[in-house]
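Example with several molecule types.
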Amino acid sequence: MKPDFLFVPGPVNVPRRVALAEAREVIYHRGEEFAELLKSVDAKLKRVFRTQNTILYFTSSGTGAMEACVTNLLNSNDEVLVIEGGKFGQRWRELCQAFRVKHHVIALEWGRAVRPEQIEDALRAHPKISAVFVQLSETSTGTVYDIESIAKITNKRDVLLVVDAISGLGVVPLEPDKWGVDCVVAGSQKSLMVPPGLAFVSVSERAWQRAAKSDLPKYYWDFNAAKKNLYFTPFTPAISLVMALDEALNIILEDGVEHLLARTELYARATRAAVTAIGLKLFSERPGAVCTAVLVPAGLNSKEILESLRRDFSIKISGGQDHLKGKILRIGHIGDIGPKDVLGVIAALELTLHRLGYKLELGTGVRAAMEVFAEHTMPVASL
Ligand SMILES: *Cc1c(COP(=O)(O)O)cnc(C)c1O
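Resulting structure tokens for the full complex:
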């Protein structure tokens, strides 16, 4: 069977150049060649992260690096604040529970964005809080948070700001050094266009000071061990994925980091215009570039929509997670995707909804998306 074209917020379609790089001969990870490779990757990745802070490399999915932040930045008697507006905010909370860290939660209705004042209020009410854990883009709802404003609040105090940018890195604006974000977590399989298996975290000077005195248990995820062996990594790295990442970063930098950001935002904007034009409702109050979440129209079954898209078009979009299962659809805009694909997924969605009995005039969504593309003079060529 033909593999599905992935319009999901990770894992994403991998460019052929990246897949070919991954297929190269494995090199020895204790030799200079590997250290040179990782050094070169590191210089390029820092440009995508937009940071001069140390970036640590872990062989795991993104969650491994999230766990590493909890166990390396905290002490057993610390109190932290978690923003829980979806599946991934929930993950920060569960990590705090797993390591028995006292945590305060700002629980948001899924689809809502945290208001920075809520964070200010929580820090004032609980002055012992020493770190805030939040998402850049809460992928389960397609919601982007205002990290710049949140950083202004944490920087007024001795409070670390730890941002899960696993899906948002490179496609949602984030300026760790300019704004003062202590740790940024990312993974290989989202906007970086590499298969799953690598996780990254950038660590500020302030965060290193916390890491020096952290007493929570850790072994594989030890920041200090990772720093000591920076370009060799303490354990066997996923060598082939590092080679793939090197090539993906070449593509991103040839294209330009600003271009990746602008292009992905444009795809999201075109998609939002399209789904709204055919009468679907956006789920998120602050939608971002990673994925567009829409409510499943009344009377239709999301499983049927997803199955028809796969069967008839080899297109995979996502449904909702947890209590949103069956209630929303999510269309991803990251990975090896170009404008022709954006127009294609909208056309396929229109046809699918039409066949399932939803009332719409065919072409309405595609036209709305085309109008968004037509307004833009910036180059929109796919990779
Ligand atoms: C995908 C994702 C994760 C989880 O990453 P895994 O690689 O599945 O461990 C965490 N946070 C966000 C925001 C994500 O999009």
